[in-house]
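I would love for you to help me understand the pair of lines that follows before we discuss the fold together.
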Amino acid sequence: MSIYPLSPSPNFQGETPYQIWEDGFTPDECHRIIQYGESLNPRPATVGNDSDTNVVDSIRTSKTSWIDCNNDTKWLYERLGNILRVVNGMFWKFDIRGFHEHIQYTVYEGNDKGFYRWHVDNNMQSDVPPRKLSMTVQLSDPNEYTGGELQLHDGEVQTAVNSRGHVIIFPSYVLHRVQPVTSGTRRSLVVWANGPGFK
C-alpha cells in the first residue's frame, strides 16, 4: 500500500475555534438554572484537583457549585447532550462517550473583579477520561454585568458572543479565558464531554 504524505501540516489559523448554538435555553430556563445553582451554595473556585486547598486568586477568582444528574436536573443534561451530539457530529466528530463530570455552575462577581486567566480544560484525574469538548452556557443577561468576556485564542484572540441562553462549544485543548467582570455578576454553566485519548 502506498502512503500519501500530508505535508506541510494544514494551517487552521483564522478559523473559528468555537461554535455557537443560539438560544439553547430560554430566559426562564436560565433563571431556573441560576436558582438551582445558587441553592447549592457556590464556594470559591479551585484550580487543579485538590478541591480543599487550591484556591489560587492569581489564576482564578470566581465561585462554583456542582450540579449532578438527578430528577431535577436530568432535563439539563439531556438538553446539553443533544446539543453536543449535533455540534460534534457537524464539526469535529470526536469520539465522545459522555459527561464524566458534574456540570459546573460558575459566578463571577464585579465586586471581586472575577476572572479566569488563560488556560485549557485539561483534567488530570486518572479515573476520568480526557476532556475533548467544552461547553459554556451564558446564563446572565449581558445587561446585568460589564466585562467578563469569554475569549479564545487560536493564533489571534476572539471574543465569543454573550447572549443569554447561547451555548458555546469548543475543543477542550483551545486556550481560553474569562476577562475580569468590572460590575454586576456574570453567571454561566460549564461542562466537559469526555472520551478516549486522542490518537
Observations:
- Confidence is low (pLDDT under 50) at residues 6-14.
- The longest helix spans residues 74-91.
- The longest strand covers residues 181-194.
